Amino acid sequence: MARITICKIALITALVAALGGCGALRSLGGGADEPSASVNNPNIPSNIETNTDNTIWSIFNRKTSDNTIAVNKYLWSASLEVLSFLPVQSVDPFTGVIVTGYGTPPGGGRAYRATVLVDDPALDARSLNVALQTRGGRAVSKATARAVEDAILSRARELRIADNKF
């Protein structure tokens, strides 16, 4: 009987200490009640505005936000066409990521794998990021990666011209 009582007392003490620690942070100047001088200084880069209503229960009340990236449809389609010899492993048009498996280009003897990121709605070279690697895990030469990017950009321009009937 005494053993159960000691366990209950220890558990209650631990809970009170844990909950008391939450309030202790505010009394030490870390809470929103007493902002320190550095918090009000906008010249310190570590001062980031945060939501002051964060509690343990706020993680259950989070609302999902729509954080999608606008993807250029011509770059997206051109990437899939130019790299059509590679098997597609995953595609996410909302974030602009295409991940392929290993495949050998027509007339080539080496297998490649590609990861493509289209991260801007503009039909621009800065909107396209292509990472190629060989089956050995090594990155391909810059010239090879540049040639693939150029092929994708050229095809994207052709698709845009055909779409607009210039």
Describe the SSE topology:
Blueprint: H1 2-27, H2 73-82, E1 88-92, E2 97-100, E3 112-118, E4 128-134, H3 142-164
Antiparallel strand pairs: 1-2, 2-3, 3-4
Helix pairs in contact: 2-3
Structural notes for this entry:
The protein has helices spanning 2-27, 73-82, 142-164; strands spanning 88-92, 97-100, 112-118, 128-134. It has a four-stranded antiparallel beta sheet with strand order 1-2-3-4, with helices on one face. The model is unreliable at 24-39 and 42-50 (pLDDT under 50). Helix 2 (73-82) crosses helix 3 (142-164). With 166 residues, it is α+β, with helices and mostly antiparallel strands. It contains three helices and four strands; from the N terminus they run H-H-E-E-E-E-H. The longest helix is centred in the N-terminal third of the chain and has 26 residues, at 2-27. The protein folds into two domains: 2-59, no CATH class; 73-164, Alpha-D-Glucose-1,6-Bisphosphate, Chain A, domain 4 (2-Layer Sandwich). This is DUF3576 domain-containing protein. Residues 1-32 form the signal peptide. Pfam families: DUF3576. Keywords: Signal.
* SS summary, helix count: 3
CATH class of the largest domain, named Alpha Beta
Q: How would a textbook summarize the main sheet? A: 4 strands, antiparallel
Terminal CA distance reads: 90 Å
Rg computed from alpha carbons, rounded to a whole number of angstroms: 27 Å
Q: Kindly state the number of beta strands.
A: 4
From N to C, what is the helix and strand string? HHEEEEH
**Helix content percent band:** 25-40%
Total domain units: 2
- If you consult CATH, what is the topology of the largest domain? Alpha-D-Glucose-1,6-Bisphosphate, Chain A, domain 4
Mean pLDDT: 76
Shape designation:
elongated
Structural class call reads: alpha+beta
Which CATH architecture of the largest domain would you pick? 2-Layer Sandwich
- Beta fraction: 5-15%
InterPro entries: DUF3576
Keywords: Signal
Signal peptide: 1-32
Organism: Sulfitobacter pacificus
